[in-house]
Amino acid sequence: xxxxxxxxxxxxxxxxxxxxxxxxxxxxxxxxxxxxxxxxxxxxxxxxxxxxxxxxxxxxxxxxxxxxxxxxxxxxxxxxxxxxxxxxxxxxxxxxxxxxxxxxxxxxxxxxxxxxxxxxxxxxxxxxxxxxxxxxxxxxxxxxxxxxxxxxxxxxxxxxxxxxxxxxxxxxxxxxxx
Length: 178
Description:
Layout: E1 9-14, H1 17-21, E2 31-42, E3 45-51, E4 56-58, E5 61-63, H2 69-81, E6 83-85, E7 90-99, E8 104-118, H3 126-131, E9 133-138, H4 141-150, H5 156-175
Helix pairs in contact: 4-5
């Protein structure tokens, strides 16, 4: 599986506080998963995915299935939003999330990009349909931050996703040039 070690670590998140400080050799056996997320601009607008079943918003993106992180990110954006992104993608950093519910240690690589084309049909999976995934375009970065911040996820994994997205959105605010 692809490992990207050069991206700056922004945070390590877990609903079990002791996991963060444990040496890797002492941690429970977690399945490793890698994913890519993007703060996607269309002019000033920002794309989010509303997960209505669990009452939170997340950044578009998903699991890395190819050897190339950006190819996976482009595929996810096309599937979730029906659009393409500019080849000039900037790194935000990475966030490691321990999802105890699934015993998964997920490394999320964050990027910032501009939408270039759309719209082709959205191609959500059965799981995404069942969870109520719907694209939502915020008017700007501040509205995206406020919306994610004010959401009230029902479960610990949604709370971790909310925290991860706020880290990426705040990081985007520091590097974004209009």
